[in-house]
Amino acid sequence: xxxxxxxxxxxxxxxxxxxxxxxxxxxxxxxxxxxxxxxxxxxxxxxxxxxxxxxxxxxxxxxxxxxxxxxxxxxxxxxxxxxxxxxxxxxxxxxxxxxxxxxxxxxxxxxxxxxxxxxxxxxxxxxxxxxxxxxxxxxxxxxxxxxxxxxxxxxxxxxxxxxxxxxx
Length: 168
What we know:
six-stranded antiparallel sheet, three-stranded antiparallel sheet
């Protein structure tokens, strides 16, 4: 005995196919901007005005940059700068200073053009004269300028560090 009537499952398949042909296709969504990151170790070497004398800083600053672009362009850049185990030499005393520390900065970047961001992380300077003790506060100094170039869509370009204020 042969059946000529469509079965219920066949009817559902036919209905689904018919709806698929008649409904408009969904518009392709614009992909969300992708966060980008970059981490570099930058040698720093130069002299800055310390508390009471000039200090020559020598070490490596580790800089990590993460950009979170907005859909319309521009966005926010997180810049994490850390200096660990760097040394400084006092002029004229010749004393050895210790420098350490890290800082996280969050800065906006432009949707219109390439932006150069400058940060001056605060570092801890321990004096050669006074041994570390709970009663003695170390000096907080900002001897290094970190510069990061970011495009409007969050691409990270040059990352540099130099002792001293940002160049104009």
